[in-house]
């Protein structure tokens, strides 16, 4: 039987970070993963270029039933700390949107930095390793795996959430937590495209591929970012962001013209009486979308001077609360993250050790901490992995 100081289950973002940090402290560390490759989600993230952090990351960008939990780790390992790490390796990166740092070339460059750190630290990675059972014994934690038994002093669960099962996601971490009496916050797919109801799908299908700047609002939160019509419904940053706050059945407001007010639409009649409202909208919306709007408002092609207040009110109301008839989400199949997870009230925010089982640690997405879209989720993985790595 192999005996090590630390076993980390999950060779993803948080697990690799924790492995290097703890092995640099002189610990004998083994990372195991049931997958045939480490860091699969890193490779597919950010459209293949990994939005690896956000320079603006702060607790307000995270959702949790226990909002104070993330404060300490985000402070102890900041986005600047991660940037310093990748700078030491000469990673080329770019700021695509304010604060959002992406690899300049490919996410492979970032993964290779993490794997290099793991190698330099002396930690080992064993892939294709399935854990069949865990026993908490007085002499350590005993893991029975398909590759033999392992005994360790500290066990770190870094198995992530449920999104993208085809890339290795499982509910393993939740099962371990339940085994020792932890409570879980309900989980659901988030940062995920929204599907629309079948009767609305037919109309919206004609818009597939069109993007526009919208405001998506639900439960008192709104995001002014692009939305993309897809052949299943809607996606794009504003939609992914709002799924952290919206659930099927709740109100969702999509404003196609966040830059325009009813008053500004009315003023067009005095300022440009010969201009049509089709012309006004054409600076904001794609032609195919305007064609659909024209089905309900055929007068869009007429001179603005001829349009009544009542007509404009109807147009404004329709565009500022555009009917997408949301049905649900695409679920874990395409979601970027899992909302909910292990109750952080039962985990130390300093060490990430379970309050129910000494020597057992939870890090990363398996915990009930979920970031907004924009590099925040990786920052949580790095920060929690680094902080736990100091104590395992
Ligand atoms: P992660 O999922 O990285 O790793 C978990 C590891 O555990 C995996 O290697 C898995 O194989 C392994 N595992 C699971 N079950 C196991 C078991 N039973 N036995 C052994 N091993 C097991 N975030 C961000 O900040 N910027 C971005 O650009 C993106 N983009 C993005 C795109 C897509 C398509 C997805 C799906 C996700 C993102 N994310 C993101 C989110 C980000 O990928 C995610 O939050 C982190 O990878 C979470 O890190 P963890 O270490 O917690 O889990």
From TrEMBL:
<keyword id="KW-0274">FAD</keyword>
<dbReference type="InterPro" id="IPR057661">
    <property type="entry name" value="RsdA/BaiN/AoA(So)_Rossmann"/>
</dbReference>
<dbReference type="Pfam" id="PF03486">
    <property type="entry name" value="HI0933_like"/>
</dbReference>
<protein>
    <submittedName>
        <fullName>NAD(P)/FAD-dependent oxidoreductase</fullName>
    </submittedName>
</protein>
<feature type="domain" description="RsdA/BaiN/AoA(So)-like Rossmann fold-like">
    <location>
        <begin position="5"/>
        <end position="390"/>
    </location>
</feature>
<feature type="domain" description="RsdA/BaiN/AoA(So)-like insert">
    <location>
        <begin position="188"/>
        <end position="337"/>
    </location>
</feature>
<dbReference type="InterPro" id="IPR023166">
    <property type="entry name" value="BaiN-like_dom_sf"/>
</dbReference>
<dbReference type="Pfam" id="PF22780">
    <property type="entry name" value="HI0933_like_1st"/>
</dbReference>
<dbReference type="InterPro" id="IPR055178">
    <property type="entry name" value="RsdA/BaiN/AoA(So)-like_dom"/>
</dbReference>
<keyword id="KW-0285">Flavoprotein</keyword>
<dbReference type="InterPro" id="IPR036188">
    <property type="entry name" value="FAD/NAD-bd_sf"/>
</dbReference>
<dbReference type="InterPro" id="IPR004792">
    <property type="entry name" value="BaiN-like"/>
</dbReference>
């Amino acid at each position: 039987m192999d005996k090590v100081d630390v076993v980390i289950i999950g060779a993803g973002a948080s697990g690799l970070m924790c492995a290097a940090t703890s092995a640099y402290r002189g610990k004998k560390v083994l990372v195991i993963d049931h997958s045939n490759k480490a860091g699969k989600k890193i490779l597919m993230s950010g459209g293949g270029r990994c939005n690896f952090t956000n320079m603006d990351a702060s607790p307000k960008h995270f959702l949790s039933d226990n909002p104070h939990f993330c404060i300490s780790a985000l402070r102890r390992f900041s986005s600047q700390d991660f940037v310093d790490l990748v700078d030491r390796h000469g990673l080329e990166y770019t700021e695509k949107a304010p604060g959002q740092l992406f690899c300049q070339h490919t996410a492979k460059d970032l993964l290779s930095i993490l794997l290099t750190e793991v190698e330099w630290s002396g930690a080992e990675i064993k892939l294709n390793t399935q854990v069949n059972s865990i026993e908490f014994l007085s002499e350590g934690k005993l893991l029975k795996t398909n590759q033999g038994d392992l005994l360790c002093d500290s066990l770190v669960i870094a198995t992530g959430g449920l999104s993208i099962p085809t890339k290795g996601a499982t509910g393993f971490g939740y099962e371990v937590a339940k085994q020792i009496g932890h409570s879980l916050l309900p989980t659901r797919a988030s940062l995920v495209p929204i599907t629309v109801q079948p009767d609305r799908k037919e109309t919206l299908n004609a818009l597939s591929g069109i993007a526009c700047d919208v405001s998506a609002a639900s439960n008192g939160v709104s995001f002014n970012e692009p939305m993309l019509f897809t052949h299943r419904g809607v996606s794009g940053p504003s939609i992914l962001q709002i799924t952290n706050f919206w659930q099927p059945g709740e109100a969702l407001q999509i404003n196609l013209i966040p830059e325009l007010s009813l008053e500004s639409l009315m003023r067009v009649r005095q300022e440009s009486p010969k201009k049509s409202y089709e012309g006004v909208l054409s600076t904001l919306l794609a032609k195919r979308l305007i064609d659909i709007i024209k089905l309900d408002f055929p007068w869009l092609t007429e001179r603005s001077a001829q349009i009544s207040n009542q007509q404009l009110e109807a147009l404004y109301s329709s565009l500022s609360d555009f009917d997408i008839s949301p049905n649900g989400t695409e679920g874990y199949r395409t979601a970027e993250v899992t909302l909910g997870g292990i109750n952080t009230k039962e985990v130390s925010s300093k060490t990430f050790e379970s309050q129910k089982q000494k020597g057992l640690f939870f890090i990363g997405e398996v915990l009930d901490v979920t970031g907004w879209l924009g590099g925040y989720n990786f920052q949580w993985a790095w920060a929690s992995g680094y902080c736990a790595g100091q104590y395992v």
